[in-house]
TrEMBL record:
UniProt keywords, alphabetically: Phosphotransferase system, Sugar transport, Transferase, Transport
Record PTM Phosphohistidine, positions in chain: 77
Protein name, per record: PTS system cellobiose-specific IIA component
CDD domains: PTS_IIA_lac (cd00215)
Domain of life: Bacteria
PANTHER family associated with the record: PTS SYSTEM N,N'-DIACETYLCHITOBIOSE-SPECIFIC EIIA COMPONENT (PTHR34382:SF7)
Keyword Transmembrane helix: no
InterPro entries xrefs: PTS_IIA_lac/cel, PTS_IIA_lac/cel_sf
Provenance organism: Clostridium punense
Length: 105
């Protein structure tokens, strides 16, 4: 595994982790009725996920070009991190909407 490949995997892990953290922060903001702030922070989560997807796309394009890389633990970890971040971001959106609906009752 060359260094560039490792760097790409680490970027996915970092960006995924940042996205998850922003999503959790957004939920906490919504919980105290700070809905506008929650949506702004969730926007930051989306930005981090976009960065992670760019890195992931590089890997996919590399493999599609015939440069197959052996699956490694770091690759599995990066993909797991990214999928968890996406799930938490989606749930954060639902929590924000739910807390806002509850606050209006």
């Amino acid at each position: 595994m060359d260094m560039d490949y490792q760097e790409i995997m680490l970027q996915i892990i970092v960006n995924g982790g940042n996205a998850r953290s922003y999503s959790m922060e957004a939920i906490q903001l919504a919980k105290v009725n700070k809905f506008e702030e929650a949506r702004e922070v969730l926007g930051k989560a989306n930005e981090e996920l976009a960065k992670a997807h760019i890195s992931q796309t590089k890997l996919i394009q590399n493999e599609a070009s015939g440069n197959v890389v052996e699956v490694s633990l770091i690759m599995v970890h990066a993909q797991d991190h990214l999928m968890n971040a996406i799930t938490v971001k989606d749930l954060a959106q639902e929590f924000i909407d739910m807390y806002e609906r509850i606050s209006k009752q």
